[in-house]
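Retro notes - structure team

What went well: the batch runner handled both jobs without manual restarts.
What didn't: labels got mixed up in the shared folder, which is why I'm recording both outputs here explicitly, each with its sequence directly above its C-alpha coordinates.

Job 1
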Amino acid sequence: MGSEPRKRGRPRGRAQGDGDSGGVRALDRALDILDVIAAGGGLTLSEIAARLGLAPSTVHRVLVTLAARGVAESDGATQTWHVGPTAFRHGSAFMRRSGLVERARPVLRRLMEATGETANLGILQGDAVLFLSQAETHETIRAFFPPGTRSALHASGIGKALLAHMRGPDLRALLQDMRLERFTPMTLTAPEALMADLALTRARGFSLDNEERSPGMRCIAAPIFDLAGEAAAGISVSGPLSRMEDARIAGIAQTVISAARELSFGMVRRGDSD
Protein backbone atom coordinates (compact mmCIF):
# COMPACT_ATOMS: atom_id res chain seq x y z
CA MET A 1 0.00 0.00 0.00
CA GLY A 2 1.12 3.54 -0.60
CA SER A 3 2.17 5.78 2.18
CA GLU A 4 -0.30 8.15 3.79
CA PRO A 5 -0.74 11.34 1.77
CA ARG A 6 1.45 14.10 3.14
CA LYS A 7 -0.51 16.75 4.96
CA ARG A 8 -0.21 20.34 3.92
CA GLY A 9 1.31 22.79 6.32
CA ARG A 10 4.61 23.23 8.09
CA PRO A 11 7.32 20.56 7.81
CA ARG A 12 7.57 18.07 10.65
CA GLY A 13 10.02 18.74 13.43
CA ARG A 14 10.01 22.48 12.91
CA ALA A 15 8.82 24.62 15.76
CA GLN A 16 5.84 26.89 15.28
CA GLY A 17 7.03 30.25 13.95
CA ASP A 18 10.31 28.87 12.54
CA GLY A 19 8.97 27.90 9.12
CA ASP A 20 9.81 31.19 7.50
CA SER A 21 12.96 31.94 9.47
CA GLY A 22 15.24 31.26 6.50
CA GLY A 23 13.25 33.56 4.27
CA VAL A 24 13.11 36.25 6.93
CA ARG A 25 16.87 36.06 7.42
CA ALA A 26 17.41 36.37 3.68
CA LEU A 27 15.10 39.37 3.53
CA ASP A 28 16.80 40.93 6.53
CA ARG A 29 20.19 40.44 4.88
CA ALA A 30 18.96 42.01 1.64
CA LEU A 31 17.63 45.05 3.50
CA ASP A 32 20.94 45.39 5.37
CA ILE A 33 22.78 45.40 2.05
CA LEU A 34 20.37 47.96 0.62
CA ASP A 35 20.90 50.19 3.67
CA VAL A 36 24.68 50.04 3.20
CA ILE A 37 24.37 50.87 -0.51
CA ALA A 38 22.08 53.82 0.20
CA ALA A 39 24.43 55.24 2.84
CA GLY A 40 27.63 54.51 0.95
CA GLY A 41 26.99 56.46 -2.22
CA GLY A 42 28.78 53.94 -4.43
CA LEU A 43 30.49 50.88 -2.94
CA THR A 44 32.19 47.86 -4.47
CA LEU A 45 31.01 44.34 -3.69
CA SER A 46 34.05 43.80 -1.45
CA GLU A 47 33.37 47.01 0.48
CA ILE A 48 29.74 46.03 1.07
CA ALA A 49 30.76 42.56 2.22
CA ALA A 50 33.41 43.97 4.57
CA ARG A 51 31.00 46.45 6.17
CA LEU A 52 28.46 43.74 6.89
CA GLY A 53 30.86 40.92 7.68
CA LEU A 54 29.37 38.72 4.97
CA ALA A 55 30.96 36.50 2.35
CA PRO A 56 31.36 38.27 -1.01
CA SER A 57 29.57 35.35 -2.71
CA THR A 58 26.54 35.88 -0.46
CA VAL A 59 26.51 39.63 -1.12
CA HIS A 60 26.83 39.00 -4.85
CA ARG A 61 23.77 36.74 -4.91
CA VAL A 62 21.70 39.35 -3.09
CA LEU A 63 22.93 42.18 -5.32
CA VAL A 64 22.05 40.23 -8.46
CA THR A 65 18.53 39.71 -7.11
CA LEU A 66 18.17 43.37 -6.14
CA ALA A 67 19.47 44.46 -9.54
CA ALA A 68 16.98 42.19 -11.31
CA ARG A 69 14.19 44.04 -9.52
CA GLY A 70 15.73 47.47 -10.16
CA VAL A 71 16.28 48.11 -6.45
CA ALA A 72 20.05 48.26 -6.91
CA GLU A 73 22.25 48.92 -9.92
CA SER A 74 25.94 48.69 -10.70
CA ASP A 75 28.23 51.13 -12.45
CA GLY A 76 30.22 49.09 -14.94
CA ALA A 77 33.00 51.66 -15.16
CA THR A 78 33.71 51.83 -11.42
CA GLN A 79 32.31 48.42 -10.36
CA THR A 80 30.34 50.18 -7.62
CA TRP A 81 26.77 49.58 -6.51
CA HIS A 82 24.07 52.21 -6.07
CA VAL A 83 20.39 52.44 -5.19
CA GLY A 84 18.26 51.72 -8.27
CA PRO A 85 15.18 53.43 -9.75
CA THR A 86 12.74 50.98 -8.17
CA ALA A 87 13.94 52.08 -4.73
CA PHE A 88 13.20 55.65 -5.79
CA ARG A 89 9.66 54.65 -6.72
CA HIS A 90 9.23 52.99 -3.34
CA GLY A 91 10.55 56.11 -1.65
CA SER A 92 8.24 58.27 -3.73
CA ALA A 93 5.29 56.16 -2.60
CA PHE A 94 6.26 56.85 1.01
CA MET A 95 6.61 60.56 0.31
CA ARG A 96 3.15 60.57 -1.26
CA ARG A 97 1.76 58.82 1.79
CA SER A 98 3.45 61.24 4.14
CA GLY A 99 2.04 64.04 2.01
CA LEU A 100 5.27 66.05 1.74
CA VAL A 101 5.55 66.15 -2.04
CA GLU A 102 1.88 66.98 -2.52
CA ARG A 103 1.89 69.56 0.24
CA ALA A 104 5.10 71.11 -1.10
CA ARG A 105 3.78 71.80 -4.60
CA PRO A 106 1.87 75.02 -3.80
CA VAL A 107 4.63 76.11 -1.41
CA LEU A 108 7.24 75.64 -4.14
CA ARG A 109 5.07 77.57 -6.58
CA ARG A 110 4.66 80.50 -4.18
CA LEU A 111 8.37 80.44 -3.38
CA MET A 112 9.23 80.58 -7.08
CA GLU A 113 6.80 83.46 -7.66
CA ALA A 114 8.05 85.40 -4.62
CA THR A 115 11.73 85.12 -5.55
CA GLY A 116 11.54 84.81 -9.33
CA GLU A 117 13.86 81.80 -9.16
CA THR A 118 13.49 78.02 -9.38
CA ALA A 119 12.36 76.38 -6.12
CA ASN A 120 13.40 72.81 -5.24
CA LEU A 121 12.51 70.06 -2.78
CA GLY A 122 15.06 67.37 -1.89
CA ILE A 123 15.94 64.67 0.63
CA LEU A 124 19.09 62.89 1.77
CA GLN A 125 20.06 59.77 -0.19
CA GLY A 126 23.37 58.30 0.88
CA ASP A 127 26.01 60.95 0.30
CA ALA A 128 23.84 62.92 -2.11
CA VAL A 129 20.69 65.00 -2.33
CA LEU A 130 17.81 63.42 -4.23
CA PHE A 131 15.54 66.04 -5.79
CA LEU A 132 11.85 65.18 -5.51
CA SER A 133 10.01 68.18 -6.92
CA GLN A 134 10.58 71.56 -8.52
CA ALA A 135 8.77 74.76 -9.47
CA GLU A 136 10.71 76.14 -12.42
CA THR A 137 11.04 79.85 -13.10
CA HIS A 138 10.19 81.24 -16.52
CA GLU A 139 13.52 83.06 -16.78
CA THR A 140 15.72 82.06 -19.73
CA ILE A 141 18.75 81.43 -17.53
CA ARG A 142 17.66 79.16 -14.68
CA ALA A 143 18.55 76.16 -12.56
CA PHE A 144 17.05 72.81 -13.51
CA PHE A 145 16.91 69.74 -11.23
CA PRO A 146 14.27 67.30 -12.49
CA PRO A 147 12.86 64.77 -9.98
CA GLY A 148 15.27 61.88 -9.52
CA THR A 149 18.38 64.03 -10.01
CA ARG A 150 21.14 63.52 -7.44
CA SER A 151 23.65 66.14 -6.33
CA ALA A 152 26.66 66.03 -4.01
CA LEU A 153 25.79 66.97 -0.43
CA HIS A 154 28.80 69.20 0.20
CA ALA A 155 28.21 71.26 -2.95
CA SER A 156 24.45 71.68 -2.66
CA GLY A 157 22.29 74.17 -0.79
CA ILE A 158 19.85 71.50 0.37
CA GLY A 159 22.72 69.11 1.04
CA LYS A 160 24.47 71.53 3.38
CA ALA A 161 21.19 72.41 5.10
CA LEU A 162 20.65 68.71 5.87
CA LEU A 163 24.26 68.11 6.90
CA ALA A 164 24.18 71.09 9.24
CA HIS A 165 21.36 69.55 11.28
CA MET A 166 22.66 66.00 11.30
CA ARG A 167 23.65 64.46 14.63
CA GLY A 168 27.35 64.76 15.38
CA PRO A 169 28.28 61.05 15.24
CA ASP A 170 26.23 60.52 12.07
CA LEU A 171 27.78 63.58 10.43
CA ARG A 172 31.33 62.52 11.29
CA ALA A 173 30.72 59.00 10.00
CA LEU A 174 29.26 60.31 6.76
CA LEU A 175 32.05 62.81 6.16
CA GLN A 176 34.68 60.17 6.88
CA ASP A 177 33.44 58.09 3.95
CA MET A 178 32.43 60.96 1.68
CA ARG A 179 34.69 62.22 -1.08
CA LEU A 180 34.63 66.02 -1.16
CA GLU A 181 34.90 66.36 -4.92
CA ARG A 182 35.84 69.75 -6.37
CA PHE A 183 33.33 71.00 -8.96
CA THR A 184 34.41 74.66 -9.10
CA PRO A 185 37.11 76.81 -7.46
CA MET A 186 34.47 77.67 -4.81
CA THR A 187 33.70 74.06 -3.76
CA LEU A 188 34.46 73.34 -0.10
CA THR A 189 36.81 70.36 -0.32
CA ALA A 190 38.59 70.75 3.04
CA PRO A 191 36.67 69.10 5.91
CA GLU A 192 37.53 72.01 8.23
CA ALA A 193 36.10 74.56 5.79
CA LEU A 194 32.93 72.50 5.29
CA MET A 195 32.41 72.07 9.05
CA ALA A 196 32.80 75.82 9.57
CA ASP A 197 30.23 76.47 6.85
CA LEU A 198 27.81 73.98 8.43
CA ALA A 199 28.18 75.72 11.80
CA LEU A 200 27.33 79.04 10.13
CA THR A 201 24.36 77.39 8.43
CA ARG A 202 22.99 76.16 11.76
CA ALA A 203 23.47 79.58 13.37
CA ARG A 204 21.68 81.62 10.69
CA GLY A 205 19.05 79.05 9.69
CA PHE A 206 19.90 78.70 6.01
CA SER A 207 22.68 77.40 3.77
CA LEU A 208 24.31 79.11 0.81
CA ASP A 209 25.75 77.32 -2.19
CA ASN A 210 27.92 80.12 -3.54
CA GLU A 211 28.96 78.85 -7.00
CA GLU A 212 30.15 75.65 -5.30
CA ARG A 213 28.46 73.26 -7.77
CA SER A 214 28.15 75.35 -10.92
CA PRO A 215 30.00 78.55 -11.82
CA GLY A 216 27.75 81.60 -11.82
CA MET A 217 24.93 79.88 -9.88
CA ARG A 218 23.80 80.28 -6.28
CA CYS A 219 21.40 78.35 -4.08
CA ILE A 220 19.80 79.22 -0.73
CA ALA A 221 18.21 76.38 1.27
CA ALA A 222 16.58 75.61 4.61
CA PRO A 223 15.73 72.31 6.33
CA ILE A 224 12.26 70.83 6.73
CA PHE A 225 11.87 69.09 10.10
CA ASP A 226 9.79 65.99 10.82
CA LEU A 227 7.86 65.06 13.95
CA ALA A 228 11.02 63.93 15.72
CA GLY A 229 12.76 67.24 15.04
CA GLU A 230 15.06 65.68 12.44
CA ALA A 231 15.89 67.45 9.18
CA ALA A 232 13.91 65.14 6.88
CA ALA A 233 14.07 67.24 3.71
CA GLY A 234 15.15 70.59 2.39
CA ILE A 235 13.70 73.36 0.26
CA SER A 236 15.74 75.79 -1.80
CA VAL A 237 15.84 78.55 -4.37
CA SER A 238 18.46 78.40 -7.13
CA GLY A 239 19.43 80.98 -9.72
CA PRO A 240 22.25 82.86 -11.43
CA LEU A 241 24.60 85.09 -9.46
CA SER A 242 23.50 88.04 -11.60
CA ARG A 243 19.99 87.87 -10.10
CA MET A 244 20.89 86.45 -6.66
CA GLU A 245 23.37 89.15 -5.78
CA ASP A 246 24.58 89.80 -2.23
CA ALA A 247 21.94 92.46 -1.56
CA ARG A 248 19.14 89.92 -2.11
CA ILE A 249 20.55 87.05 -0.04
CA ALA A 250 18.98 88.01 3.30
CA GLY A 251 15.54 88.63 1.81
CA ILE A 252 15.50 85.42 -0.23
CA ALA A 253 16.78 83.46 2.77
CA GLN A 254 13.89 84.62 4.97
CA THR A 255 11.41 83.63 2.27
CA VAL A 256 12.98 80.18 1.99
CA ILE A 257 13.04 79.74 5.79
CA SER A 258 9.33 80.66 5.98
CA ALA A 259 8.52 78.06 3.31
CA ALA A 260 10.51 75.41 5.19
CA ARG A 261 8.68 76.23 8.42
CA GLU A 262 5.32 75.99 6.68
CA LEU A 263 6.13 72.49 5.46
CA SER A 264 7.60 71.47 8.82
CA PHE A 265 4.43 72.57 10.62
CA GLY A 266 2.39 70.76 8.00
CA MET A 267 4.23 67.53 8.87
CA VAL A 268 3.41 68.07 12.55
CA ARG A 269 -0.27 68.71 11.83
CA ARG A 270 -0.44 65.57 9.68
CA GLY A 271 1.17 63.47 12.40
CA ASP A 272 -1.04 64.88 15.14
CA SER A 273 -4.17 64.04 13.18
CA ASP A 274 -3.20 60.41 12.52
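Job 2
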Amino acid sequence: MKNTYYNVGKLLIEAQGGEDRAKYGDGLIKEYSLKLSKEIGKKYNITTLKRMRQFYLIIGKGATLWHQLSWSHYCELLPLKDINEINYYVKITIEQYLSKRQLRERIRNKGYQRLDDKTKLKLINKEETKVNDFVKNPIVIHNKYNLDKERISEKVLQNLILEDIPSFLDELGDGYSFIRNEYKIKIGDTYNYIDLLLFNIKYNCYVVVELKVTELKKEHIGQIEVYMNYIDKHIKTINQDKTIGIIITKRDNHYYIEYSSDKRILTREYILN
Protein backbone atom coordinates (compact mmCIF):
# COMPACT_ATOMS: atom_id res chain seq x y z
CA MET A 1 0.00 0.00 0.00
CA LYS A 2 2.78 2.47 0.91
CA ASN A 3 4.45 1.74 -2.43
CA THR A 4 1.24 2.86 -4.12
CA TYR A 5 1.19 6.07 -2.07
CA TYR A 6 4.84 6.67 -2.94
CA ASN A 7 4.11 6.24 -6.64
CA VAL A 8 1.10 8.56 -6.50
CA GLY A 9 3.27 11.14 -4.74
CA LYS A 10 5.91 10.77 -7.44
CA LEU A 11 3.27 11.22 -10.15
CA LEU A 12 2.06 14.44 -8.53
CA ILE A 13 5.55 15.91 -8.19
CA GLU A 14 6.40 15.10 -11.78
CA ALA A 15 3.10 16.52 -13.02
CA GLN A 16 3.79 19.73 -11.08
CA GLY A 17 7.21 20.10 -12.66
CA GLY A 18 9.42 18.92 -9.78
CA GLU A 19 9.84 19.55 -6.07
CA ASP A 20 10.63 23.28 -6.42
CA ARG A 21 7.25 23.90 -8.00
CA ALA A 22 5.31 21.51 -5.75
CA LYS A 23 4.09 24.28 -3.44
CA TYR A 24 2.37 25.92 -6.41
CA GLY A 25 0.60 22.73 -7.42
CA ASP A 26 -2.45 22.74 -5.16
CA GLY A 27 -4.68 23.40 -8.13
CA LEU A 28 -3.36 20.30 -9.84
CA ILE A 29 -3.88 18.28 -6.65
CA LYS A 30 -7.49 19.40 -6.54
CA GLU A 31 -7.90 18.33 -10.16
CA TYR A 32 -6.36 14.92 -9.46
CA SER A 33 -8.45 14.54 -6.32
CA LEU A 34 -11.70 15.03 -8.19
CA LYS A 35 -10.58 12.68 -10.94
CA LEU A 36 -9.30 9.89 -8.69
CA SER A 37 -12.16 10.17 -6.22
CA LYS A 38 -14.60 9.75 -9.06
CA GLU A 39 -12.73 6.88 -10.69
CA ILE A 40 -11.38 5.03 -7.63
CA GLY A 41 -12.84 6.21 -4.34
CA LYS A 42 -13.03 8.88 -1.64
CA LYS A 43 -9.67 8.01 -0.09
CA TYR A 44 -7.99 10.17 -2.72
CA ASN A 45 -9.16 13.48 -1.29
CA ILE A 46 -7.02 16.62 -1.33
CA THR A 47 -5.54 16.04 2.15
CA THR A 48 -4.58 12.46 1.31
CA LEU A 49 -2.92 13.47 -1.95
CA LYS A 50 -0.91 16.20 -0.21
CA ARG A 51 0.30 13.59 2.27
CA MET A 52 1.31 11.26 -0.56
CA ARG A 53 3.22 14.09 -2.18
CA GLN A 54 5.04 14.82 1.07
CA PHE A 55 5.64 11.10 1.62
CA TYR A 56 7.41 10.86 -1.73
CA LEU A 57 9.53 13.91 -0.91
CA ILE A 58 10.75 12.71 2.49
CA ILE A 59 11.63 9.26 1.15
CA GLY A 60 13.56 10.94 -1.66
CA LYS A 61 15.50 12.99 0.90
CA GLY A 62 16.64 9.94 2.83
CA ALA A 63 13.83 8.97 5.18
CA THR A 64 13.71 5.22 5.75
CA LEU A 65 10.82 3.28 4.23
CA TRP A 66 9.88 0.40 6.51
CA HIS A 67 7.00 -1.94 5.86
CA GLN A 68 6.63 -2.45 9.64
CA LEU A 69 5.21 1.07 9.87
CA SER A 70 1.61 1.72 8.90
CA TRP A 71 0.51 4.62 6.75
CA SER A 72 -0.98 6.15 9.92
CA HIS A 73 2.50 6.13 11.48
CA TYR A 74 3.98 7.90 8.48
CA CYS A 75 1.21 10.51 8.57
CA GLU A 76 2.44 11.45 12.06
CA LEU A 77 5.95 11.91 10.67
CA LEU A 78 5.09 13.95 7.57
CA PRO A 79 4.98 17.39 9.30
CA LEU A 80 8.59 16.96 10.49
CA LYS A 81 11.26 18.78 8.46
CA ASP A 82 14.46 17.09 9.68
CA ILE A 83 15.14 13.77 7.93
CA ASN A 84 17.39 12.63 10.79
CA GLU A 85 14.58 13.30 13.23
CA ILE A 86 12.17 11.32 11.06
CA ASN A 87 14.58 8.37 10.89
CA TYR A 88 15.01 8.46 14.68
CA TYR A 89 11.26 8.13 15.22
CA VAL A 90 11.06 5.39 12.59
CA LYS A 91 13.82 3.52 14.44
CA ILE A 92 12.24 3.71 17.91
CA THR A 93 8.77 2.93 16.53
CA ILE A 94 10.06 -0.35 15.10
CA GLU A 95 12.27 -1.25 18.06
CA GLN A 96 9.67 -0.41 20.71
CA TYR A 97 6.54 -1.42 18.76
CA LEU A 98 5.02 2.02 19.23
CA SER A 99 1.40 2.56 18.34
CA LYS A 100 0.37 5.61 16.35
CA ARG A 101 -0.76 7.29 19.58
CA GLN A 102 2.54 6.52 21.32
CA LEU A 103 4.53 7.84 18.37
CA ARG A 104 2.48 11.04 18.37
CA GLU A 105 3.20 11.46 22.08
CA ARG A 106 6.97 11.03 21.55
CA ILE A 107 6.92 13.65 18.81
CA ARG A 108 4.79 16.03 20.91
CA ASN A 109 7.25 15.70 23.80
CA LYS A 110 10.16 16.54 21.45
CA GLY A 111 12.06 13.37 22.34
CA TYR A 112 14.55 13.75 19.50
CA GLN A 113 15.20 17.41 20.18
CA ARG A 114 16.07 16.61 23.79
CA LEU A 115 18.82 14.18 22.83
CA ASP A 116 22.45 15.21 23.19
CA ASP A 117 24.06 16.46 19.96
CA LYS A 118 26.70 13.72 20.26
CA THR A 119 23.96 11.09 20.31
CA LYS A 120 22.34 12.59 17.21
CA LEU A 121 25.68 12.42 15.42
CA LYS A 122 26.10 8.77 16.43
CA LEU A 123 22.68 7.97 14.99
CA ILE A 124 23.44 9.76 11.73
CA ASN A 125 26.77 7.94 11.36
CA LYS A 126 25.25 4.63 12.58
CA GLU A 127 27.86 4.39 15.35
CA GLU A 128 27.57 2.22 18.43
CA THR A 129 25.54 3.83 21.21
CA LYS A 130 25.69 3.52 25.01
CA VAL A 131 22.94 3.22 27.59
CA ASN A 132 23.26 6.85 28.67
CA ASP A 133 23.12 8.26 25.12
CA PHE A 134 19.32 8.26 25.04
CA VAL A 135 18.58 9.91 28.38
CA LYS A 136 16.60 13.03 27.51
CA ASN A 137 17.58 16.50 28.68
CA PRO A 138 15.59 17.85 30.34
CA ILE A 139 13.63 14.90 31.70
CA VAL A 140 9.89 15.50 31.64
CA ILE A 141 8.04 14.29 34.74
CA HIS A 142 4.26 14.23 34.57
CA ASN A 143 2.73 16.63 37.06
CA LYS A 144 -0.99 15.92 37.11
CA TYR A 145 -1.39 17.82 40.39
CA ASN A 146 0.18 21.03 39.00
CA LEU A 147 2.72 21.17 41.83
CA ASP A 148 5.20 24.03 42.04
CA LYS A 149 8.66 22.89 40.94
CA GLU A 150 10.27 25.32 43.37
CA ARG A 151 8.53 23.87 46.42
CA ILE A 152 8.33 20.11 46.04
CA SER A 153 10.38 17.68 48.12
CA GLU A 154 12.41 14.75 46.82
CA LYS A 155 9.77 12.39 48.20
CA VAL A 156 6.99 14.15 46.27
CA LEU A 157 9.13 14.12 43.11
CA GLN A 158 9.68 10.41 43.56
CA ASN A 159 5.95 9.82 44.01
CA LEU A 160 5.18 11.68 40.78
CA ILE A 161 7.59 9.35 38.98
CA LEU A 162 6.15 6.24 40.63
CA GLU A 163 2.64 7.18 39.53
CA ASP A 164 3.72 6.98 35.90
CA ILE A 165 6.75 4.70 35.73
CA PRO A 166 6.34 3.80 32.00
CA SER A 167 6.53 7.45 30.94
CA PHE A 168 9.55 8.04 33.16
CA LEU A 169 11.39 5.02 31.74
CA ASP A 170 10.66 6.28 28.22
CA GLU A 171 12.46 9.50 29.16
CA LEU A 172 15.60 7.47 29.86
CA GLY A 173 15.58 5.49 26.62
CA ASP A 174 14.83 1.90 25.63
CA GLY A 175 15.13 -1.36 27.56
CA TYR A 176 14.63 -0.15 31.13
CA SER A 177 12.94 -2.19 33.85
CA PHE A 178 11.97 -0.85 37.26
CA ILE A 179 13.33 -2.84 40.21
CA ARG A 180 12.20 -0.73 43.15
CA ASN A 181 12.32 2.63 44.86
CA GLU A 182 14.07 3.28 48.18
CA TYR A 183 16.29 0.27 47.52
CA LYS A 184 17.88 -0.59 50.88
CA ILE A 185 21.61 -1.26 51.12
CA LYS A 186 23.91 -1.52 54.14
CA ILE A 187 27.27 0.22 54.04
CA GLY A 188 29.22 -0.51 57.20
CA ASP A 189 26.77 -0.09 60.07
CA THR A 190 24.53 2.35 58.20
CA TYR A 191 21.50 1.66 56.02
CA ASN A 192 21.22 3.73 52.87
CA TYR A 193 18.37 4.03 50.38
CA ILE A 194 18.79 4.34 46.62
CA ASP A 195 15.98 6.53 45.26
CA LEU A 196 15.36 4.35 42.19
CA LEU A 197 17.12 1.17 41.10
CA LEU A 198 16.60 0.14 37.47
CA PHE A 199 18.01 -2.43 35.09
CA ASN A 200 18.58 -1.95 31.39
CA ILE A 201 18.00 -5.21 29.53
CA LYS A 202 19.31 -3.91 26.22
CA TYR A 203 22.67 -2.80 27.65
CA ASN A 204 22.79 -5.41 30.44
CA CYS A 205 23.51 -3.12 33.38
CA TYR A 206 22.02 -1.72 36.57
CA VAL A 207 21.11 1.96 36.70
CA VAL A 208 21.09 3.96 39.92
CA VAL A 209 18.89 7.08 39.88
CA GLU A 210 19.13 9.80 42.52
CA LEU A 211 16.64 12.67 42.73
CA LYS A 212 17.63 16.16 43.86
CA VAL A 213 15.29 19.15 44.15
CA THR A 214 18.23 21.54 44.49
CA GLU A 215 21.08 22.61 42.26
CA LEU A 216 23.63 19.85 41.69
CA LYS A 217 26.27 19.70 44.43
CA LYS A 218 29.59 17.88 44.42
CA GLU A 219 28.48 15.67 47.32
CA HIS A 220 25.65 14.35 45.15
CA ILE A 221 28.26 12.89 42.79
CA GLY A 222 30.13 11.27 45.66
CA GLN A 223 26.90 9.78 47.01
CA ILE A 224 25.78 8.17 43.76
CA GLU A 225 29.30 6.90 43.06
CA VAL A 226 29.24 5.01 46.39
CA TYR A 227 25.87 3.48 45.50
CA MET A 228 27.07 2.45 42.04
CA ASN A 229 30.20 0.81 43.46
CA TYR A 230 28.07 -1.04 46.03
CA ILE A 231 25.81 -2.44 43.30
CA ASP A 232 28.84 -3.49 41.25
CA LYS A 233 30.46 -5.26 44.19
CA HIS A 234 27.46 -6.94 45.82
CA ILE A 235 24.67 -7.29 43.22
CA LYS A 236 26.07 -7.17 39.69
CA THR A 237 27.01 -10.53 38.22
CA ILE A 238 30.23 -11.18 36.33
CA ASN A 239 28.51 -11.18 32.93
CA GLN A 240 26.81 -7.80 33.47
CA ASP A 241 28.28 -4.42 32.58
CA LYS A 242 29.19 -1.83 35.19
CA THR A 243 26.41 0.18 36.81
CA ILE A 244 25.73 3.69 35.58
CA GLY A 245 24.32 6.58 37.61
CA ILE A 246 21.83 9.30 36.72
CA ILE A 247 21.37 12.33 38.95
CA ILE A 248 18.11 14.13 38.19
CA THR A 249 18.31 17.63 39.59
CA LYS A 250 16.42 20.91 39.54
CA ARG A 251 19.45 22.77 38.22
CA ASP A 252 22.54 21.20 36.72
CA ASN A 253 26.13 22.30 37.27
CA HIS A 254 28.09 20.72 34.45
CA TYR A 255 31.44 21.72 35.93
CA TYR A 256 31.14 19.10 38.67
CA ILE A 257 30.57 16.35 36.10
CA GLU A 258 33.30 17.73 33.85
CA TYR A 259 35.86 17.31 36.63
CA SER A 260 34.48 14.02 37.93
CA SER A 261 36.70 10.99 37.38
CA ASP A 262 33.75 8.61 36.97
CA LYS A 263 32.36 9.02 33.45
CA ARG A 264 29.54 6.55 34.16
CA ILE A 265 27.67 9.32 35.97
CA LEU A 266 25.48 11.78 34.10
CA THR A 267 23.21 14.57 35.26
CA ARG A 268 19.91 15.80 33.88
CA GLU A 269 17.58 18.58 34.85
CA TYR A 270 13.88 17.83 35.23
CA ILE A 271 10.79 19.78 34.31
CA LEU A 272 7.28 19.18 35.57
CA ASN A 273 4.63 18.97 32.88
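One thing worth noting from job 2: The chain has a mean pLDDT of 89.
We'll revisit the folder naming next retro.
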